[in-house]
């Protein structure tokens, strides 16, 4: 038997979800459509035309879901607030019934000793704000700050861990560039403008939260910062990597952590945008002191230079679209990283997570880090006894948690890990076909069954050490 992989006793063992992916109840208690309601109800946008109308009905089953988390032994839960439940038009006074749902959810978590971690924006922009221009419009950032203030005032007394945005890269570049996410626009200039206004929203939102909440609360952001590798160290390939690194990482952490966009980003995108919407003072506004940084990690990217990348669906794992999510990067080629893959086609590579954590430990010294999402989709099915065995997911979790442990040993201040996801759920444009849950959901009855990975992870959470993969009965 190998040495047990043990974690600090304060390490948080969490699971993550987001509002639109699990809540359902899209027309209840004053909620109005978000861009994801509109998008998923537009023919051809999601697999099988699936929507989050019912999702896994968490809005009505949250008590059972929290009980399940407690039974498994989780110490933290990351969820998001649905903006259109709180401010149906994205402006004006709050709907108390909407806020009350999150008060009840948080109180239930606290009663069971589970730490809530709240994300303000996990992609469900009120449709009215999209109709007014969406994220390419500067006003959306001010609207977000107002929403942040409302939620901060309502829940700041009971939630200590806050995140402004989840994966602004997806909002900007899948939403306004490749169009595989809501609102489904395909305009490279708009996607860069959206990125800046998301940054601005983060900065304004952070200030609004600070003013609205007790000082003990912590504020962070969750970035899907990628580990990017090249096929060779040929200068052209290294330049290709720099370009994608700027568009994936530097465009967000540059302003957020260092108060500046990478110079190389301005140069590389000058054919698409003149960045004139970056106004005096914006970078100071965005560069707010943070208490922690959330990293979401699934798979690394592998790139090279090319004369012109082939048109059509690309091997970058970002869904099939004829439009690239990478503005002004038509001469960068994405390759499939070698190795086993999950059901998403994403290569399993825990070393990429170690590299990512060490990079941010270096670039943001002193800033506590959390892995706010990590997990895998598999084609899980119950056996005749109704049990769901998912040894591949256990292996994935074991590999990635071991990488986190190595990063801690190497000096990184990683305080917790949130498995994506607690439950099988609405996987955006892929619909319900991709199961990321540690808990299986039967979509005809909505019954929940913990998979063997949930039991394995619960045991890790309770003991603070990873159970052996080979000796586990799974
Ligand atoms: C993240 N990509 O989404 C989200 O935060 C979750 O809501 C989602 O369910 C999870 O990861 C699994 O997909 C991503 O194309 C969606 O690179 C797309 C990409 C990355 C993350």
UniProtKB/TrEMBL annotation:
Catalytic residues identified in the record: 167, 373
Cross-referenced PROSITE patterns: GLYCOSYL_HYDROL_F1_1 (PS00572), GLYCOSYL_HYDROL_F1_2 (PS00653)
SUPFAM superfamilies named among the record's database cross-references: (Trans)glycosidases
Protein keywords: Carbohydrate metabolism, Cellulose degradation, Glycosidase, Hydrolase, Polysaccharide degradation
Biological-process GO terms, alphabetical: cellulose catabolic process
Keyword Hydrolase part of the UniProt annotation: yes
Residues that bind substrate: 21, 122, 166, 298, 420, 427-428
GO MF terms held by the record: beta-glucosidase activity
GO cellular-component term (any): cytosol
Annotated Pfam families: Glyco_hydro_1
Catalytic reactions on record: Hydrolysis of terminal, non-reducing beta-D-glucosyl residues with release of beta-D-glucose
EC number: 3.2.1.21
Family from the record: Belongs to the glycosyl hydrolase 1 family.
Official protein name in the record: Beta-glucosidase
Organism: Streptomyces montanus
Source lineage: Bacteria, Bacillati, Actinomycetota, Actinomycetes, Kitasatosporales
């Amino acid at each position: 038997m190998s040495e047990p992989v043990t974690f600090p006793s304060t390490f948080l063992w969490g699971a993550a979800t987001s509002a639109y992916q699990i809540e359902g109840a899209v027309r209840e208690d004053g909620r109005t459509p978000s861009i994801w309601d509109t998008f998923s109800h537009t023919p051809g946008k999601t697999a099988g035309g699936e929507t989050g109308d019912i999702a896994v009905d968490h809005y009505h089953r949250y008590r059972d879901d929290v009980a399940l988390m407690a039974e498994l032994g989780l110490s933290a839960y990351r969820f998001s607030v649905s903006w259109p439940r709180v401010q149906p038009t994205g402006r004006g006074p709050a709907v108390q019934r909407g806020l009350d749902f999150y008060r009840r959810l948080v109180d239930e978590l606290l009663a069971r000793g589970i730490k809530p971690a709240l994300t303000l924006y996990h992609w469900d922009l009120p449709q009215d704000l999209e109709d007014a221009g969406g994220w390419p419009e500067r006003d959306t950032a001010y609207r977000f700050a107002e929403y942040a203030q409302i939620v901060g005032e309502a829940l700041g007394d009971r939630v200590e861990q806050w995140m402004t945005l989840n994966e602004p890269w997806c909002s900007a570049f899948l939403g306004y560039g490749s169009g595989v996410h809501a609102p489904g626009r395909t305009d490279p200039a708009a996607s860069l403008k959206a990125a800046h206004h998301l940054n601005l929203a983060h900065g304004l939102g952070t200030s609004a939260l600070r003013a609205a909440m007790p000082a003990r609360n912590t504020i962070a952001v969750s970035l899907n910062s990628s580990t990017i590798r090249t096929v060779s160290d040929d200068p052209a390939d290294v330049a290709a990597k720099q370009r994608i690194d700027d568009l994936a990482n530097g465009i967000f952490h540059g302003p957020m952590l260092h108060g500046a966009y990478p110079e190389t980003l301005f140069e590389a995108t000058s054919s698409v945008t003149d960045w004139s919407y970056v106004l005096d003072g914006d970078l100071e506004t965005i560069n707010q002191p943070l208490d922690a940084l959330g990293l979401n990690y699934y798979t690394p990217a592998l790139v090279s230079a090319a004369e012109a990348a082939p048109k059509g669906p690309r091997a970058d794992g970002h869904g099939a679209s004829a439009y690239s999510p990478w503005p002004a990067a038509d001469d960068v080629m994405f390759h499939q990283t070698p190795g086993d893959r999950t059901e998403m086609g994403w290569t399993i590579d825990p070393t990429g997570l170690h590299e990512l954590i060490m990079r941010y430990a270096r670039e943001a010294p002193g800033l506590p880090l959390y892995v706010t999402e990590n997990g895998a989709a598999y084609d899980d099915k119950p056996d005749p006894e109704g049990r769901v065995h998912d040894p591949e997911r256990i292996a994935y979790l074991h590999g990635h948690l071991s990488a986190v442990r190595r990063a801690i040993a190497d000096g990184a201040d990683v305080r917790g890990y949130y498995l994506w996801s607690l439950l099988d759920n609405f996987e955006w444009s892929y619909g319900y076909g991709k199961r990321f849950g540690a808990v299986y959901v039967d979509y005809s009855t909505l019954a929940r069954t913990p998979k063997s990975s949930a039991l394995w992870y619960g045991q890790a959470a309770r003991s603070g050490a990873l159970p052996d993969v080979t000796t586990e009965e799974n």
